[in-house]
Write a structure and sequence with these properties.
The chain has 122 residues and is an alpha/beta fold. The chain has four helices and five strands.
Length: 122
């Protein structure tokens, strides 16, 4: 059994803000699991997604490309994507790949939630 297998939870924080908490290796399988959770939350009305990567230490290029696809879907719907609890390595990877130009990054889930719920511009 692979100890790095992705573990996910998803929840609607408000009518339009969805949370995905991911722990484990974000590769093609982990990325697809996050994409499926994002699709479910968007189907439930979420226009803003917060992805908490507190339990994630590694993401590969396929995982990043899947996150970019999620971002693209949200932007097409005038939605927003945000991340929190990034390791320095993942933060740098997101910076290099350009994700941080279009998605907000917060130090913690609490800070992210306060910022996203306080931002009434949509």
């Amino acid at each position: 059994m692979n100890e790095e297998q992705i573990k996910l939870s998803k929840d609607l924080l408000t009518d339009d803000i969805g949370l995905i908490a991911a722990a484990g290796y974000i590769n093609n399988e982990g990325g697809q699991a996050i994409a499926d959770a994002a699709t479910d939350l968007m189907g439930d009305g979420a226009t803003t997604l917060l992805i908490d990567l507190k339990g994630t230490r590694i993401i590969n290029s396929i995982g990043v490309s899947i996150l970019l696809e999620i971002l693209e879907k949200l932007l097409d719907e005038q939605g927003r994507l945000a991340f929190c609890n990034l390791t320095p390595t993942i933060s740098k990877t997101f910076e290099i790949m350009g994700l941080v130009q279009y998605a907000a990054v917060y130090p913690s889930r609490e800070v992210a939630r306060a910022a996203l719920e306080g931002d009434v511009t949509s």
